[in-house]
Amino acid sequence: MNVQQTPIDIKVPASEDVVSEPGPPSGVADQHDVIQDDDLDLMELTGHKPVLQRNYSRFALLAFSFMIVDSWSGIIGSLATGISSGGTVMLIYGSIAVTIFTMAVALSLAEIASAYPTSGGQYHWTAVLSPKKYSAILSWFCGYFNAVGWCVVCASITVILGQFFMAMIILTHPDITYHRWQGFVVYQAFNLLCSVVNAYGRKALPYIHGTGFYICLTAFFLVNMTMLGTAFPKNSAKFVFGTFTNNTGWKSNGIAFIVGLTNPAFSYGGLDSAVHMAEEMKDARKNLPFVLISTVCIGFVTLIVTAITICFCMIDLDKILATSTGVPILEIFYQATESKGASIFLLSVLFYLTTAAILGSQQTASRLIWAFARDEALPFSKQLSTIDTRQKVPVNSTILCWAIVAVLGCVYLGSSTAFNALVGCNVLLANISFAFPIGLLLFGRRKYLEHATFSLGNKIGPAVNAIALAWIVFMVIFFDFPFTMPVHADNMNYSSVIIGAVVLFSSAYWLWKGHDRYKGPKMEVGIDAAFNLQLAKQTREHRS
User: Fold this and answer.
1) Dihedral, CA atoms, 69, 70, 71, 74, nearest 10 degrees?
2) Cβ-proximal residues to 377 (8 Å cutoff; 6+ apart), any chain
3) Which of 66, 395, 410, 440 has the maximal Cβ count within 10 Å?
4) Which domains does the chain show, CATH number per domain?
């Protein structure tokens, strides 16, 4: 673009016209101590004053992101779906296919994140990239899909934790019969515990995620080496790489395979976690793309190795699917090691990793709720957008996240297949929110990325964006299908119901109050200035 031919109108508001933001908490007055110049530039461009401390380095945020995504343990947590919908073919080839498309999504997000690193993420990007006429309403719906999606992420991971806990008890005491209310109690207990840690353990969290990253990689080697070293006999290579299993009731193997893709897709759930921590990360413009892409790369290596290991070691498939513990991976551990103690130890490692993932997911969800409330898009926005002056975190937003996850737990209590619905919604809601900014990029809004530190260019970029958007549309269509046939009330895929509820509530609130209160993310600098960082910096210097 030729800036001289197309002047950029930079709005320099008078002090009384500047939109007020929640003030910085005590002890954080001098933000230059913790924020680099580029961070300040971009916060000014995106229209918000920095109020959160930037405690996260590049490595700390990579550890944070991977601990949430944690692809190899993610595929273990939702293993029953993959085994039923393709078996070894799904676990291996499905994982490869999903990774390719997920990388296209990650690359697209990385471009935008390097230009606009804010806690709002997708809804903020949508507002900036949209034509002015549609900016507010598009970012509104994007934000609701993203915010509810993250609460569903928290719920789906917490359900897995409850299942793991009860499975270890049942393996030790076979006379105990599993009831959903037991998992529900564990679910609520850990939901509350992790919320308290997020609200009052701010300083410890970067260290928890950092050490958890090493524990996660150590556990990856431990679990895979133990299974390979103890399982006997192992399945043949022909079985592992060429056997399709369809226990879904679908007559079409193709549909069964497509529905089963929710298993590897769930393994990349929470991909945008780092995005919503941007305002707590040092030099976010440069580091966010690295974190997003690295998370997928590390995730794929650990995912494919684990998938192949499981395929070689799952000896009695029928017994795995019918296990009394309700957790297929525990049965695989037991078949491999023939030791209850060793099996429980391996699952307890996964239990720890799942707990760390809940901590990170709740942390991300609370930051997104806080950012959305900061722009007056939620009921009780004034309360939800405050930063606790002692804890220096959005405690009220953390409490709301806890409450929503607690309510979602009731869905699991009421249906034996509700976990599948939570898994499907986890994937769908997040990707629907990705579709807004990626679609806008694809349809002519790339000019607003001229100041991005990471760019795919005007030739490769649109192609990658198109692949990412096509994959999202594919998921929205097929991941609403029932997981098993024939369909009845107990095994219905309720993803569409949850998505419909999000659309209904957000539409009703928009018509009631949103269209008057919400004008999109608050901008202290005109949107047109956003695609020329240098000019914005010069303007700021001239103003001072």
Assistant:
1) -90
2) 123, 140, 143, 144, 514, 517, 518
3) 66
4) 31-536 (1.20.1740.10)
Which phi and psi angles does 454 have, rounded to 5°? Answer: -130, 120
Q: How far is CA 200 from CA 134, 193, 393, 399, in A?
A: 39, 11, 8, 12
Given the structure tokens 């996850």, which residue do they identify? 405
Q: Which residues contact 475 (CB under 8 A, 6 or more apart)?
A: 261, 265, 427, 428, 431
> At how many degrees (to 10) do helices 284-313 and 58-69 cross?
40
C-alpha closest to that of 280 among 197, 212, 209: 209
**Which 3-state string (H, E, C) describes 160-205?**
HHHHHHHHHHHHHCCCCCCCHHHHHHHHHHHHHHHHHHHHHCHHHH
3-state SS string for 7-57 = CCCCCCCCHHHCCCCCCCCCCCCCHHHCCCHHHHHHHHHHCCCCCCCCCEC
Q: Where does residue 520 fall: left (phi above 0), alpha (psi -120 to 50 degrees), or beta otherwise?
A: left
Tell me the average confidence (pLDDT) per consecutive run of 10 residues in the chain, 544 residues long: 36 36 36 44 51 67 89 89 92 97 98 89 92 93 95 91 92 86 90 94 81 90 95 93 93 94 92 86 87 96 97 90 90 94 95 92 91 90 90 92 92 68 82 97 87 90 97 94 84 84 96 91 49 41 42
Bridge partners, residue 245, by sequence: 86
CB 36 within 8 A of CB 283: yes
Measured in whole angstroms, the distance separating CA 119 from the mean position of its chain's CA atoms is: 13
Strands 245-246 and 85-86: what pairing? antiparallel
